[in-house]
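Our consortium's second objective concerns turning raw sequence data into structural hypotheses that experimental partners can test. To show how far this objective has progressed, the report includes one record in full. It was chosen at random from the queue rather than selected for favorable results. The single chain below, 391 residues long, was entered without modification.
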Amino acid sequence: MTQLPSLRPIDLIVVTAGRLASTTAFRIVYPLLPFLSNRFDISLQQGATLIAIQTAASLASPIGGTLADRIGERKAMLIALALFIGGALSCSLASGFNAFFVGYLLIGLATALYLPSGQAYISARSPYEQRARVLGIFEMAWAISAIIGVAPLMYLINQQQQSMVAYAILAGIGILSFVMLWQLPEHHQRPQVEHGTPATLNIMTLLRQPGLAILLLFPFLTFGGNDLFFITQSTWLKNDLGANEALIGGLFVIIGIAELAGSSAVVAFADRIGKRRSVIWGFLLTGICLALLPFVGSNWWAITVMMFLFYFLIEYAIVASFPLISEALPAARGTMMALMSAAVGIGRIFSSLSSEFLYVNGGLPLISAVAVLTSVLGLIALTRSQLTPKR
C-alpha cells in the first residue's frame, strides 16, 4: 500500500473538532429522555425509540466506510456533517415528536458516517505503534462533548424548559465544523493489497474473512451490553434518587472529566501496555464497577465516585479497542471500522428495546447483571479471533 502523508497536528484537531457537534447531539438524548417524554407527552419507551433510531442508523456505517475507502475520508466526513446540520435544525424547529424523530434519524446517520471515516483518516496516516495516541486524542471528542456540550445544554434546557435553542446551537457548531473540514487536504489514494491489486471493498467478501464474524461479536456484546446502563441511568437518577435535569447535567460534567481522563490514559499508556491487554482489562474492571454500583445506596458521594471510576475505565477500554480493530483488515480499514460501528449499533438497538423491560422488572441490579454478562461474552469473542494484533 502506498504510504500516505503523515498526519499533521492541524489535521487531527480539525477532524476531532468535526466530531464534537454530532457526538454532543448523540449523547444528550440519554439524559434528556425524561424531559422529552414529558414535552411530547409520550411514554419512556416511545422516547427510547430516539435512541433506537439513532443507533439503528449506525447500520449505515458500512456505507460511510465504503465511501471513505472509495471517494476519500474527508468527502465522507463532509457528507456526514451536512446530514447532521439538517438533523439538528429539524430537532430545533420540531413542534411534534415525529419531526424530532426525523431529526434524530439524520443525526444518527451523520454519526454513523463520520465516525468510521474520521477513524480511517487518522489511522491511515499514523503507524500502528503510535495509533492509540492519535485515536485516543480523536476519541476525546466523546468526553469533551459531555463537559462543554451536554452539561451546559442540559442546564440551558432546564432553565428555558424547551430544547429549541440548544439544537440551534448544535446546528451552528456543525456549520462551523463543515467550513473547517472543507479546508483540509484529502490525500486520498485507493488502498492496495500486497501485490498491487486494488483491495476489494465488497462487504460480503470481507464478512467471509476467517475470524471476522467472531471479532464483530466483541463490539456487539460489550458496547451493547454496557449501553443498557447508559440508557437507564437518567431514569434511575431521576426516579430513584430524585435528580432533576440540571443535576443530571452537572453529573455529566464529572462523567466527561472521567472519560477525558480515560482517553488521556490511552494516549499516555496504551501503546506501551498493549492495545489488546488494555481492552481486556479495561472491560473486566468496568464490569466490576457496574456490578458494585447497585449496592452504593443513595449516597451521592459514593455514587459520584463509583460512576467516575466506571466511566474512566469504560472509556479507556473503548478507546483502546479502536486502534486494535483498525489493524484487523488494513487494506479496507474504513470499511472495517464501519463494520465495527454497525456491530455496536446493532447491540445498542437490542439494548434500547430491552432496557425498559429489564429496568421495570429488576431495576439497576438486573441491568448491571445483564451488562456484565454480555461484556464477558464479548471479551471471550475477542480472544477467539485471530485478526487483531496480539499487542
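The partners drew two points from this record. The longest helix spans residues 333-384. Residues 191-200 have pLDDT under 50 and may be disordered. Both points have been shared with the crystallography group to help prioritize constructs.
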